[in-house]
Amino acid sequence: MTKYILAFDQGTTSSRSIIFNRDGDMLTVAQKEFTQIFPQPGWVEHDADEIWSSQVGVANEALARIGIKASDIAAIGITNQRETTIVWDRKTGKPIYNAIVWQDRRTAADCDQLKAEGLETTFQQKTGLVIDAYFSGTKVKWLLDNVPYAREKAERGELAFGTVDSWLMWKLTQGELHITDVTNACRTLLFNIHTQQWDDELLSILNIPRSLLPEVRSSSEVYGYTSEGIFGSRIPIAGIAGDQQAATFGQASLQSGMAKNTYGTGCFILLNTGNQPMQSNHKLLTTIAWRINGRTDYALEGSVFIAGAVVQWLRDGLEIIKHSADVEALAASVPDTGGVYFVPAFVGLGAPYWDSYARGTITGLTRGSTNAHIARAALDSIAYQTADVIEAMRQDSQLHLRELRVDGGASRNNLLMQFQADILGVPVVRPKITETTALGAAYLAGLAIGYWESEAEILQQWQADQWFEPKISADHRLNLLDSWHQAIAQTRHR
Ligand SMILES: Nc1ncnc2c1ncn2[C@@H]1O[C@H](COP(=O)(O)OP(=O)(O)O)[C@@H](O)[C@H]1O
Ligand SMILES: O=P(O)(O)OC[C@H](O)CO
């Protein structure tokens, strides 16, 4: 009987389950959006039970669609929205509060306080991260300080913390396993990326008891099996990685110097830097790309908070398009932005600025500006933000990128991809399989059980679909970037 790999891709806006075969072909995708909860401005939550029910629901749907059973699945790989924080009661298995999502800014003032205490270097040297509300650490502290009796319970060892991978693993094994992998652990502000251990000094700064924390494992190994009641028969769970690291793996950016950008709600650019962590001098993150068979690869990451989400705002806020895909035709109806620049700092700015208090700005409007100019400026902003990150990577690593591999919903937009190549002066390449996040998780699981033999096999499976070559002159590029940086300056919080 042919066996398949089932990937769980638990994202910010939807849960997806995708089934792959040995050739890395996608046989089916089942997807379900779930509720986004905005209790206050700047706060974003998910219902952790809905995360679980939607994920298991789409897994069953995917199996049913192609008429296979759990016993036909060789292994499950899990990939997930990162940093999103869940704390649950070990005895009842019930979350003590909603999941606090990576986008949530409620702990921005706590982060300011940590910075004022001069702790930036300590956190950066140990975790590779900047102090920001984006990461899990201050979210866990907030839960312990604000949910009634949470701290007392945590101190008695009654609570468990996990990112979404840990939560899914706990549910899949009915409370048998409380684990995470290094790629998720390294996004918490609590994990030392050099020793690959939870760090007592950081735990004490944030006042988080160690008993809350999951055991940290590699990204590719048989961690355990799904409980019998869930899919009928027990399936090995053999891969875990945060979604951006999984996408880097799925893009076969397996060698130092290779980079990918995923254009979803935000944009996440990861540059593989090989077996040594590279510290950034330009506010990029040093992150673990994966750990396989005792070997750790690292990446430099630039996280941009608003990318495809600016297109959603054109759709839902301004209502100038009906569907996200309509933005391409509207933007292409004008030759350029007519001098309009749009900085979509709706939730502040991520890398390389890390300005929590910047807000969105549109500059250069004239009587001649139209919806089309604004749409084009919105698309361009995605490419400019990426260019800022890649310039910071160039300065940090001295590497000149040979190509940028792209994926994610907005990478379908050819106008955007062409402008991305133009503004970078680097070719952009879109692969045949753009579900690279799920594919990466499938590969990690498959490697652990010998379904795929080696990373060399994975390198061979990656195939380009479309190339976008830079077409504008270096002078034109510099002028555009200069105007963009003037717009950024107007956006910054002073
Ligand atoms: N043709 C398009 N042009 C620009 N943006 C698009 C297009 N199609 C989808 N998007 C944007 O891509 C995002 C969805 O991509 P996806 O990879 O599913 O994101 P996520 O995993 O963050 O939920 C949405 O923000 C949407 O506005
Ligand atoms: O779920 P996505 O694709 O928006 O990715 C979210 C990132 O993991 C946040 O760090």
End-to-end distance, in Å?
64 Å
Q: What does the oligomeric state look like here?
A: single chain
State the name of the first-level CATH class of the largest domain.
Alpha Beta
Q: Mean pLDDT across all residues, rounded?
A: 95
Provide the fold topology.
Layout: E1 4-10, E2 14-20, E3 26-33, E4 45-46, H1 48-65, E5 73-80, E6 86-89, E7 99-100, H2 108-116, H3 120-127, H4 136-146, H5 150-155, E8 159-162, H6 164-172, E9 179-181, H7 182-185, E10 191-192, E11 197-198, H8 200-205, E12 215-217, E13 220-225, H9 228-231, E14 236-242, H10 243-250, E15 259-263, E16 267-274, E17 285-292, E18 295-304, H11 308-316, H12 327-332, E19 341-343, E20 361-363, H13 371-397, E21 404-407, H14 414-424, E22 428-431, H15 436-448, H16 455-461, E23 464-468, H17 474-491
Parallel strand pairs: 1-5, 5-14, 9-12, 15-21, 21-22
Antiparallel strand pairs: 1-2, 2-3, 4-7, 6-8, 10-11, 13-14, 15-16, 16-18, 17-18, 19-20, 22-23
Helix pairs in contact: 10-15, 11-13, 13-14
Bound molecules: adenosine-5'-diphosphate and SN-glycerol-3-phosphate.
Structure notes:
With 494 residues, the chain is an alpha+beta fold. The protein has 2 domains: 2-216, Nucleotidyltransferase, domain 5 (2-Layer Sandwich), CATH 3.30.420; 251-493, ATPase, nucleotide binding domain (Nucleotidyltransferase, domain 5, 2-Layer Sandwich), CATH 3.30.420.40. It is 35% helix and 23% strand. It contains 17 helices and 23 strands. It has helices at 48-65, 108-116, 120-127, 136-146, 150-155, 164-172, 182-185, 200-205, 228-231, 243-250, 308-316, 327-332, 371-397, 414-424, 436-448, 455-461, 474-491, and strands spanning 4-10, 14-20, 26-33, 45-46, 73-80, 86-89, 99-100, 159-162, 179-181, 191-192, 197-198, 215-217, 220-225, 236-242, 259-263, 267-274, 285-292, 295-304, 341-343, 361-363, 404-407, 428-431, 464-468. The chain has a 7-stranded mixed β-sheet. Strands 3-2-1-5-14-13 form a 6-stranded mixed β-sheet, with helices on both faces. Strands 4-7 form a two-stranded antiparallel ribbon. Strand 2 and strand 3 form a beta hairpin. Helix 10 crosses helix 15 (436-448), helix 11 (308-316) runs antiparallel to helix 13 and helix 13 packs across helix 14. The radius of gyration is 22 Å and the shape is globular. The model has no long low-confidence stretch (mean pLDDT 95). Bound molecules: adenosine-5'-diphosphate (ADP) and SN-glycerol-3-phosphate (G3P).
